Fold these 2 entries.
Entry 1:
Amino acid sequence: AEEVGGGDKEVVRNYFNNSGFQRWKKIYGETDDVNKVQLDIRLGHSKTVENVMQMLTDDGSLKGVTVCDAGCGTGCLAIPLAKEGALVSASDISAAMVAEAEKQAKEQLAASNGDIAPVMPKFEVKDLESLDGKYDTVVCLDVLIHYPQNKADGMIAHLASLAEKRLILSFAPKTFYYDLLKRIGELFPGPSKATRAYLHAEADVERALNKVGWKIRKRGLITTQFYFARLVEAVPA
Ligand code: SAM
């Protein structure tokens, strides 16, 4: 899946509409038909979502705050955001993912009986590069892993241009240990590993943010046995 005329994106779209959709729907879901590795990734990812919700709610109420969830997947973040009263625009390059997120939101938000009346997120099939508009907060979780740094730079710049106050990103950090794990993984590719995983050095992500006038305000690291994510919150410098 090397880049040939933007080939990465087509491969990723195709993957997340087919085998990747089946695989990740299970990981992000609640059913018990997952193996040990998938269960570990589910746990790690849910910690990332919790961390993001904490970061955002620590900053004040989300009621009426506009949030763009770029690459929303099955809605793991969009739904809890809506429960907090945020006005969520959730989009994904995969139509299958967006349909699943919408289904989940309808089920979970109808049953929601908290103090705050949730607003149904606006779901859209769109790659993040073609998103427009302005949002108080833009969040993009575990999406950069599908793109090499030279592409990620442009994606980060575009996401920052949509955000007025905050941009939250998570990515797989390029550390020696994880680099090693990944190389070992590449020697034994499983049948479901249809896409390449790209790791990003925190310094490269920070440079991409600085270049467009943003600075990192908070950092987090989420690790389980098989899941690694660096979480950064950036604000205008
Ligand atoms: N952000 C979600 C979460 O954390 O629950 C989903 C993460 S999943 C590993 C990656 C998602 O990014 C997939 O749903 C995929 O379709 C989406 N994606 C990949 N490339 C994208 C792009 N260029 N624009 C928008 N979405 C993209």
Entry 2:
Amino acid sequence: SQESWLPTLKTDTPEEGYELAVKLARKAVGMTQPDESIRKKLRPVYANNADSLTLASQVVAINFQTVAAANDYWKE
Ligand code: HEM
């Protein structure tokens, strides 16, 4: 489906898989808070907070587990 924002979890490389994991995390934020002006207002808050950044990294890490599994850990 070419209209889908998430047509597949398959990626050619682990690095692309990691980028997809970031995309998934940001998509969730966009769906949770559709108002761009509010997201822009909150950006400097989380960008300057170590714990917020650690949590954002954790969400990406969880997504990366899913993406890696879907790609069979890019074996072979
Ligand atoms: C920018 C990741 C949560 C608002 C970014 C960028 C990344 C990122 C990688 C830089 C993109 C770039 O420079 O091209 C994440 C992750 C999150 C998260 C992984 C959580 C798991 C949030 C939340 C908000 C937010 C909670 C606000 C409610 C923004 C905005 C920008 C941004 C407005 C654009 C900043 C700009 O234009 O300079 N985010 N983010 N993000 N994020 Fe987040």
